[in-house]
Amino acid sequence: MKYDIDEHLLKLAKLNQPMNRLYFAVANALLHPLVHTLKGRGLRHEYLRFKTEYGKVRIHLVRDDSASGELPCMVYYHGGAFMRYAAAHHYRYIKKYAKECGCAAAFVDFYPAPRCRSTEIEGQCLSAYLYLLENAHKLSLDADRFMTAGDSSGGFLAIKTVSLLCERGIKPRCNMLIYPLIYGLEDTESVKKYTDTPVWNSTVIPKMWGYYLDDGYEWTTAEKVCVPTYMEIAEFDCLHDADLRFCDELEATGGYVEKLVTRRTIHGYDAVDYEVTRLAFERRRQFLQKFLIAPDICRK
User: Fold this and answer.
1) How far apart are CA 232 and CA 26, in angstroms?
2) Domain spans in the chain, listed from the N-terminal domain onward
3) Domain 7-293 carries which CATH code?
4) Segment 141-178, tens digit of pLDDT
């Protein structure tokens, strides 16, 4: 193999995600029923639905069945190039956060592109966060301890949601980003280098933006999303350099940044349960404990 990918990821490395509508239509028909796996043993599951100007919003709120009182809340946006519903590992992690991290996990089940585009999808993501915050007491959530999180394109949505929230004077406790997609990454060396990496590579990015972006799209800046941030970065990933650059930009604003560059990994590596991903999850758990769970942590 061209890249020195960890042997535990070799099965994953056989997967590729073509950027065409037929692939996503078939994949979504198979994937969306997996959302029902959130109703696991030992978990309390609530399905929240409401209408907004951006269309219907769907949220799956999950917490440990033994938890009591008002819990901190992680609002999670899943990856999938904006076009794909969540995969099995997304639901596995949502349940782990709820059972092992001392928080409620709110999974935002947004409608994907190209059915919806950037204005609608980002509006659904923002509306989900605001709904949970406004109804925190009724949902047994602690309104003072909310955060955003996401992987890949979901990390992009988490960043944009923080920006939109901060414009409204609302500042999440923290943001957890797993190999996030960053807007304007096309000038980086990793984009030029990783044109043939498994699972995801730079050749499909232009078509992805074409399906997702509205005309006149506006991104954000590090200054507008300066909350304590945790970021995981894969070694063999076209997003690698843009992720590192965004971390540097956040640090330059004076923000707290904790980054973990995983070795011999590819985009989507945390779909596989092995030593590297177990250690990464522990780092995530520690970050949540420090900035979301612990009651004596003040907002930055």
Assistant:
1) 29
2) 7-293
3) 3.40.50.1820
4) 999 999 999 999 999 999 999 999 999 999 999 999 99
